[in-house]
Amino acid sequence: MIHYLKKQWRLSTLTCLFAIIAYGAQALIQLALMKIFDAVVLLDLRSTIFWTAVDLTCWGGYFLFTALQEHCQTKTIRALNNTVRDGLYHSFLRKSHTDFHQSDTGEYLARLTNDIKQLEQLAWIPFFGCVGRIAQIVFSILGLAFLHWSLVVFSVITAVVLWLSPKLFQKKLELLGQSCGVQQTAAINHLKDLLTGFDVLQFFGRGNLFLQQGNRISDDIEKPSCQLSYEKSRMEALIGFINVALQLGSLVLIAVLTSMGLVTTGTLAGGVNLIGGVANGFNSLAGLRLSLSASKPYFGKLPTVDTDSKSEEVAPMSPLKASITVDRVSFGYDEKKPILKDASFRFEKGKKYALTGPSGCGKSTLLKLLLGWLPDYTGTISFDDVDIHTVTPAQLQQQMSYIEQNVFLFNTTIRENITLGEDFSEEQLHAAIQGSALAADLAAMPDGLDTVVGEDGSNLSGGQKQRVAIARALIHNRSILLVDEGTSALDQKNADLVEKSLLTNPDLTLILISHHLSAARRAQFDRVYELAPVTQ
């Protein structure tokens, strides 16, 4: 928590400063109130008017700085939430391909949305509340010291009792906070699954099932927070009762001191409020500490990533000069069931290769090995004379592009999907469009490159999406293209158009997976590798 507050120290400090000034004004209000009471008792009109003016000025300052504190706190929490998300984004980039895909999208969404909202409610708001309450306690104690030492002693006893009370419940709330996060993440995963399957349920007339599941998941999301809030309110109610009992004791003490002539009559007007400031401050502080305790599991899930440090630049590999060699490589997701065993291949620069064979024979696995995504293999994979175990996947991917059957496009323009936010000249764009056979498609679109593709490319056909992906690979100077059944979902005309654009590009080293190759198409490849399942 301190890590993030330090990153936003200017806003955090300003928010705390406004809170401290506001509670300082609140203590002055009580002291001025006592002076007004004493002046009225003494029938001193001039003093009454003076201290009334002072009291109103303090009230004005209190409301002004409270408003400033609220405004500044809102901006600070926004910055803190964005800082947490930034740390998560950096941690995602530092994950390997395998590590990133060990969690599904629903879990990542939960961490970026629900968990951060919980941090806001359980950590950021309570933290700034704690600063204000501590200021309230300190200023109230200083005011009491100005009146009589016994009032300070009583306020300290009050403080100790109210400070220790939450420790009885702290562990339970931490466990509840942890359980809340786990349950809500699971519910969001179920919600993602339900929304993904919306078309299936609607097509088969299962709208009622969609509603039933949606309402159940909605309750699963809300129920953990409800339980956590209930436990917090139950514990805060008990602490509140203790607080009231202590305030009654303070009233009795001030009445005794007044009757003994140790304090003025005006102390009855403001002294109780000052002791109440200590008691209420510690009462609120106790509840805020419970919230901070419940936030610990959420901070425990955050990565320890220093986003301020400059990330190391990935040294580029030398461009492929001769070939990629796979020598006696074995790999299996399960040690007892190898996918590839002593497999050897050679892919020469600029040539075109096809991988064929039945499902499960390792075609897709081979491409992922070439990309460096699956490092736990035996044998050797060389990029010219460089063993890819000695380089990072990021270095390999500077020269390779990978196109799957289901191409993902961002919900923005075709131009943005091709360039990915980088600046390219019109000549570079034109070359990529021609090389991907996308020119005819763009000519038929009123907005051309500025056509919005829709969510996951829903406004484009399957062939158009494939050609956008190819243009993206070409413009980013990826000279090696790995295509995992990229045309299997297309009609023959579109499949021929896409494959022709790849096979006739002399600058491209192509490795393409296909289940079905016609004799004519097979002849266009420099070599076709037939893979077979590993026999036990």
Give an overview of the whole structure.
Its main location: membrane. It comes from Faecalibacterium prausnitzii. Pfam families: ABC_membrane, ABC_tran. Residues 324-536 form the ABC transporter domain. This is ATP-binding cassette domain-containing protein. With 536 residues, this protein is an alpha/beta fold. The chain folds into two domains: 2-300, Up-down Bundle (ABC transporter transmembrane region fold), CATH 1.20.1560; 323-530, Rossmann fold. Helices cover 62% and strands 9% of the residues. It has helices spanning 2-7, 9-41, 45-94, 97-100, 105-112, 114-147, 149-164, 170-196, 198-203, 207-259, 267-300, 363-370, 393-396, 414-419, 426-435, 439-443, 462-475, 492-503, 519-522, and strands at 323-331, 340-348, 352-356, 378-383, 386-387, 400-403, 480-484, 509-513, 527-530. A five-stranded parallel beta sheet has the order 6-7-8-3-9, with helices on both faces. Strands 2-1-4-5 form a four-stranded antiparallel beta sheet, covered by helices on one side. A hairpin with a 2-residue loop joins strand 4 and strand 5 (386-387). Helix 2 (9-41) runs parallel beside helix 6. The chain is elongated and about 110 Å long. 36% of the residues are buried. The model has no long low-confidence stretch (mean pLDDT 82).
The helicity comes to 55-70%
Please state the structural category.
alpha/beta
Provide the CATH top-level class of the largest domain: Mainly Alpha
Kindly report the spatial arrangement of strands forming the biggest sheet: 6-7-8-3-9
Number of helices: 19
CATH topology of the largest domain: ABC transporter transmembrane region fold
Ends: how far apart? 53 Å
Tell me the count of domains: 2
Mean pLDDT: 82
